[in-house]
């Protein structure tokens, strides 16, 4: 009689299980992931006033409460405090280092973390000094905790410094900056306002993603792809507006293009609910988009504001859609395929870390059968 192993189909990955899985994060904001205690420390050290409370637990609860308004604009208002305490090289390096530590402890093996250098110059730092301070923190954290963190430098879409930031991305691309992004309120600030920056990046063979299809609809996505040439879409939730319900669902021209071109969608389920881009996890478009074969990735957006981690985002999807290890590995491989690092680096992590790591977790969840 032979004996084999089968995965128990009535058991799903638990949050503790998921924390052990090797994960990849593409959409995480540095100024949206500070530890509340660090905000309090930095405010005291740098003389920053205006925090609603100096008790770390109460402060963390305040951020979560303020972020659940259903409005992208109100959600973004909470960043005044995190950005306010990130105005010195020491603060930036500390926050970047702790970011790497927190992600590594959550099982993330590769991350791309974005921030807007122009928001950290209020106390006299130059753009270069800001970038160098953040890269130092990521490098130290990478060495200490065994995680690879690449930086995405972000331009604010309502400002006019995108060319400066694009040049910054190219200048530091061999030092740890892996790409460029634009962020901020979408309505009234289309990505085409920054067309010169995107054309420059394309001429320089540089990577970039664009926040699109979160606070605004299909025109935002269309412009990001067809006018600006985005490699990835930050969020992209509203692509669902171009899919007609049915059996099977019918894809419009734009949705079909996004799927067929394998344009990665950087989806952030909890954040999308907080900003009103989705109603609930169970109703989030990620379920349908995954079924239709879009290149969907799972992300945190702002861990502080959303009170979340990448493991928790996956656990919510397991609960809502009944996903198992195969689906979680699929999301993770999607993310690593879409990362802004070299092809050999992506292959090394997929074949040497991600697939073996998930295989080990599947094996632990198996039971012997006769």
From TrEMBL:
Its cofactor is Zn(2+). GO terms for cellular component: cytosol. The keyword Mitochondrion does not apply. One of its GO terms (molecular function) is adenosine deaminase activity. One of its GO terms (biological process) is nucleotide metabolic process. InterPro entries: A_deaminase, A_deaminase_dom, Ado/ade_deaminase, Metal_Hydrolase. Zn(2+) binds at residues 27, 29, 211, 301. Its EC number is 3.5.4.4. SUPFAM superfamilies: Metallo-dependent hydrolases. The record marks 235 as: Important for catalytic activity. The active site is at 214 (proton donor). Residues 22-355 form the Adenosine deaminase domain. Pfam families: A_deaminase (PF00962). Keywords: Hydrolase, Metal-binding, Nucleotide metabolism, Zinc. Binds 1 zinc ion per subunit. Catalyzes the hydrolytic deamination of adenosine and 2-deoxyadenosine. Belongs to the metallo-dependent hydrolases superfamily. Adenosine and AMP deaminases family. Adenosine deaminase subfamily. HAMAP family: A_deaminase. This is Adenosine deaminase. It comes from Actinomadura macrotermitis. The gene is add.
